[in-house]
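Final report, results section. Input specification for complex C-07:
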Amino acid sequence: MSFLDEVPWNREGLISAVAQDAKSNRVLTVAWMNREALKQTVEKQQAVYWSRSRKRLWRKGEESGHVQKVVEIRLDCDADAVLLKVEQVGGIACHTGRESCFFRKLENGKWATVDPVLKDPELIYKK
Amino acid sequence: MSFLDEVPWNREGLISAVAQDAKSNRVLTVAWMNREALKQTVEKQQAVYWSRSRKRLWRKGEESGHVQKVVEIRLDCDADAVLLKVEQVGGIACHTGRESCFFRKLENGKWATVDPVLKDPELIYKK
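Structure output:
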């Protein structure tokens, strides 16, 4: 029995995948994986997600170079979420050029952008 | 316009909610919130989730006492996940009596339980 069989994939065949920086412990991204994405993540030791918008496997960093190298993979108690501890190549996880996708903080009832852009997305996603 | 209106609730009216210990930065739980759960989480400054299995609001800790006091709330770039930094009362987030729900680690192709039970669940969920 494969570790993949222990995951009760939801009706869309997905589970949540949280990526956390292995050094700073900052939560970087929350994305989705299907069975093939988790399989490839383990094989390549690099995060591979399922892009719901593009409806295809998304090898994180395939365009940006901002690969997430896998340090550790954990599963939660009801097996519907995985936690990846990763080395975030380039120190940028978000497509906006920020370290983490969680750059907005609730302050006085509003989502305030509190983290800086480290690199212009136009420079990250060169044509 | 409310901060709640900026969340593109999925077709079930939910978003993912990751809770992270504000001190240790350990990821404790991944759960779901609907609009009312996020509203109450902000009002009470304690994590309130939507239980998909019980189909009702789940005031985290309502039975166990293992409340998650909110220190900070963040929203990700595509606004489909929130990150709560919390003070985990009792130091136990998981219904199995462990600190974190992510107590299984992928080792040699198997999910190995690597974290100890800190308190017997039968003592946590007293009738």
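Chain A has a mean pLDDT of 95. The beta strands of chain A are 15-21, 27-33, 48-51, 56-59, 68-75, 81-88, 104-107, 110-113. This concludes the modelling results for the funded period.
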